[in-house]
Design goal:
Layout: H1 2-22, H2 28-65, H3 74-98, H4 108-113
Helix pairs in contact: 1-2, 2-3
């Protein structure tokens, strides 16, 4: 299920993100309202992709090595190290996504206009 969900989610995320953030007709307030959903679904799709890669790695190991997996074959050790590195990469990316000090600084036009115009009322 995740094998088909991740590419479908990525495609829809890309299309909707393109229409909201790169299309010149989208307003700043519309962009600011969609941004939290964009970040959430981007992180969810990333987690699905990492999970799909880990499950594919495990499936390939079980089909290739079978009962020899517990004998610490070099292919199994290499795949396990790759799986650990992939899981660590996913954790680092999610950590960076959740940290406020890693966020992109506001551009000059965003600071001047106050994206939701809340300070003007």
């Amino acid at each position: 299920a995740a094998q088909s969900t991740a590419p479908l989610g990525l495609s829809s995320q890309w299309l909707v993100g393109f229409s909201f953030f790169l299309f010149p007709g989208a307003s700043f307030s519309l962009r600011s309202r969609y941004r939290p959903q964009h970040v959430f679904f981007g992180a969810a799709i990333f987690l699905l992709s990492v999970g799909t890669a880990l499950l594919g790695l495990k499936e390939a190991l079980l089909f290739e090595l079978g009962a020899k997996y517990s004998a610490f074959e070099p292919e199994g050790v290499l795949a396990n190290v790759l799986g650990l590195l992939l899981a660590a990469f996913g954790a680092v990316v999610l950590y960076i996504l959740t940290r406020a000090d890693w966020k992109r600084p506001l551009q000059a036009e965003e600071q001047a206009l106050s994206m939701d115009f809340k300070t003007l009322t």
